Each structure stands twice: as structure tokens, then as C-alpha cells.
Amino acid sequence: MLIDMVDDMSIPTTKLFIDSKFVESNTSEWLDIHNPVAEHACSITSLMLGETLPSITKDMDTYTYRLPIGVCAGIAPFNFPAMIHLWMFPMGMVCGNTYLMKPSERVPGCTMLLAKLLQDAGMPVGNLNIIHGQHAAVNLICDHPAIKAISFVGSNQAGEYIYERGSKNGKRVQSNIGAKTHGVVMPDANKENTEPARLVERSKALRVNAGTSPFYLKDFHYPADTLDEAISLVNNNQYGNGTAIFTTNGATARKYTHEVDVGQGIQFYTQIKTVTSQWKAEDATTKSPAVTMPTMGC
């Protein structure tokens, strides 16, 4: 249904960078490519599981629960008018939060279509809210005391501003900026599939906007001597960590996933509640249950 609506509305096309070349792609194609995030949100029943540690001491157990944090907000860029939104509000809402979405003022149409789909599906009014605007709308999100968390994808300048202003107001902020997602490539990885040399070389010469503005400005290759150093590089990023590791060694992958400081979905949109209970064994009843059965007058 979404694809039909998008096609009928003739939303402008975008471009995808595939194999070192820009190619035209209509909206329905990249929606189909990136909707697994929304599908993943449907598995929330297992993702929201807490933890149990029984018998931490005599007659005592500890439980943890994942609880919603309240009102969350998302600020999305113009160049992907639906994809980024599907990274944000589906995960935030299935975790039990209400969501305030601010699309780019340049391309707000897709966001309205997505909201219409939720409305048609029976989503109660007020769970997803949309705010339109520019700088004033961003400041409102960063300053409003009811908003507990902000997710942002976009440029460095805007992302740093949102991170600093939102953090000063006591909010959680994940600020994915500059499209510089960390990728750790181990020596044993398949280099042809992970970091083709020709892609690196061509990206250095890439130009967009009629050749007047450079796309590639900074070196994005940071060699690390050890895996621990690579993990440190990722964890020292103060804004937002979207990361991956390329390796054929399971032990290396396991170490990376356990030590890297990430958590952009469930961990970001929930808070942990810890309950410790103590039930003394001597207080347990020893009486047999009494059961009365009807005799039908016999």
C-alpha cells in the first residue's frame, strides 16, 4: 500500500551510490531496500526481554525490566525523506514511547504518508506527532522538558548543535553526523567485499552539486594496530555510533560486539528498572491447600 501511495503521489526521486556511481532510484526501490528496520521492530517481544539473576544471595533474586522513557523525538535530513524516519519512530514507538517526528522542511510529504498509514492501521491518536519547521522547531525539540531523547541524522554542523543543546537540557541524544559510520576491517576479512581499493580511490575524486562542492573532504581511513585500538576509536566518538566489523574470525567478532559502546535502538529508547526481591524460605506456607468440590447433594 505504501509503495502504491508513493507512486501515485509522484514523490521526487533520489540517488543511490552503488559501485562508485550515482544511479537514479525511485522512492519505492529504496523504501523496499531499507524497510527491514521497521520489520525488525515487529520482533519487539523478544528485544524487550529483561534479565533475571536468581539467588544472588540467600532468598534474594534480582530482575531487570526495560521501560519506556517517555516522549522521544526524531530529526531527519532531506536526502532520504522516508528511510531515516523508518530508523527512528518505529523503534521508539514499539518500546512504548510517544514520538515527535520533524522531517526536513524540504520534503515533508513522505512523513505525512507514513503517519497516514499508521492512522489507517488503527494507531491511537497522539502516539506519533509531526512538527514542521526549521531552526525554531529544532530548538523546541532540544529545549522542551517533556522530550527525553532525540535521534538525529544529518550534517556535522547541525548534529553537533543538536547534541550540545539537547545534552545541556538533560536529554539523551544520538547524533549520527557526517555519514562517517565506523567500519572495522580485520586483516582476515574479504577485502573485495568490504573495502574495494577502487571504491576508495574513486571516492576521493567524487564531486556533486554540478561539480562546485566537494563530496569527499577528509580521509576516512584510520589504521589501527590492534583490535583494542579500533574499539577505542569507535568508543571515543561522542556523537553516535553506527558501526560494523568485517572479519572471518568468530572470536574477534564476539569481542567486538561485547566491548563496543553502541545501542541505537532498544537501549536508546528504554530505561532499565532493577528490582531486588527477598522472600525468606521460613516464611513459605507449609499448609496443604484446601479444595472443596461440589457433591450435587450426595
Structure report:
The chain is an alpha/beta fold. The protein has a single domain (2-278), classed as Aldehyde Dehydrogenase, Chain A, domain 1 (3-Layer(aba) Sandwich), CATH 3.40.605.10. It contains 13 helices and 14 strands. A five-stranded parallel β-sheet has the order 7-6-5-8-9, with helices on both faces. A hairpin with a 2-residue loop joins strand 1 (14-18) and strand 2 (21-25). Helix 7 packs parallel to helix 8. The chain is globular and about 75 Å long.
Share in β-strands: 15-25%
Q: Tell me the major beta sheet.
A: 5 strands, parallel
What low-confidence regions span 5 or more consecutive residues with pLDDT below 50? 8-22
Order of helix and strand elements from N to C terminus: HEEHHHEEEHEHEHEHEEHHEEHEHHE
Overall pLDDT confidence: 78
**CATH C-level label:** Alpha Beta
Q: Could you tell me the radius of gyration in angstroms?
A: 25 Å
CATH architectural label: 3-Layer(aba) Sandwich
* Shape estimate: globular
Query: By helix and strand content, what is the structural category?
Result: alpha/beta
> Could you please say which CATH topology applies here?
Aldehyde Dehydrogenase, Chain A, domain 1
Helix fraction by DSSP (H/I, runs of at least 4):
25-40%
- Number of DSSP helical runs: 13
Report the count of strand segments.
14
Spatial separation of the terminal alpha carbons: 65 Å
How do the strands line up in the largest sheet? 7-6-5-8-9
Name the CATH superfamily assignment: Aldehyde Dehydrogenase, Chain A, domain 1
Can you tell me the number of structural domains?
1
